[in-house]
Amino acid sequence: MKLSIFNGSPKPGVNNTAVLLERFIEGFEVTEGNKAQMIRMNHEQAYKEAALSFEAAEAVLIAFPLYSYAMPAGIKTFFEQLEPLLGKCNGKKVGFLVQYGFIEAVHARALEKYLEYIAKALDCDYMGTIIKGGCDGLTKSKRGAKKTLTGAYEIGKKFGETKVLDKQQLDDYSAPEIQKQQNVLVMKVLIKIINKVYWEKSLKKNGISVEESFAKPYGN
């Protein structure tokens, strides 16, 4: 099977999305005859070229980080480039991979439905969406993310064998769906500490007061 993988992370160089994809590809290519082609998308011309690659591809995996419960602007641009293909991609297999820093899978569920809609609008066979939270720092410490990376490898391996993204495997990988109550309390404390130690320091470094950060210039 030939798989075209589109990495839509806007970050230059190594990024969390790429780290996950590396392990997915390792698992996918364990099966003899499987070959993955990585296509990088992080500037305007790349989106146009990627649209041509998408049209010619047999099977596609589109990967990117979650931004504001949706997607990077570049991925939206890429989807716009696919408009001429609406309803014309019968038989093409399409899946997605979405990674982000929050732990809970619920943050990406609305986007998951939209991605399925996009696939169906193109008349593609929607394979599913790999969702994984807690991916901040993958580029810095792969050892600390062993479970996350092993999971990506296993999903790639099974997909390589069956040509299907197994829904149960994806659900297990994306867990937890929501945080347990005790974890919510811990997160509230951590957020206060992060806001105090990191964000306030960053604001002051850039000459912005904490009060100014709450400004609502378009409010009533």
Record field, number of beta strands: 5
* Helix proportion range: 40-55%
Terminal CA distance reads 56 Å
- CATH topology annotation of the largest domain: Rossmann fold
How do the strands of the widest beta sheet line up side by side?
2-1-3-4-5
The average pLDDT value, as a whole number, equals: 91
Radius of gyration: 19 Å
* Largest β-sheet summary: 5 strands, parallel
Total domain count: 2
Q: What general outline do the C-alpha atoms trace?
A: globular
Question: In the CATH classification, which architecture of the largest domain applies?
Answer: 3-Layer(aba) Sandwich
- CATH superfamily label of the largest domain: Flavodoxin domain
- Please report the number of helical segments: 7
CATH class of the largest domain: Alpha Beta
Proportion of residues in extended strands = 15-25%
Low-confidence stretches: none
Q: What does it look like?
A:
The protein is α/β, with parallel strands linked by helices and 220 residues long. It has two domains: 2-174, Flavodoxin domain (Rossmann fold); 181-214. The protein contains seven helices and five strands, in the order E-H-E-H-E-H-E-H-E-H-H-H. The protein has helices at residues 16-28, 44-56, 73-81, 109-121, 146-162, 167-174, 181-205, and strands at 2-7, 35-40, 59-65, 93-99, 125-132. It has a five-stranded parallel β-sheet with strand order 2-1-3-4-5, with helices on both faces. Strand 1 (2-7), helix 1 and strand 2 (35-40) form a beta-alpha-beta unit. Helix 1 crosses helix 5 (146-162) and helix 2 crosses helix 3 (73-81). The longest helix has 25 residues, at 181-205. The model has no long low-confidence stretch (mean pLDDT 91).
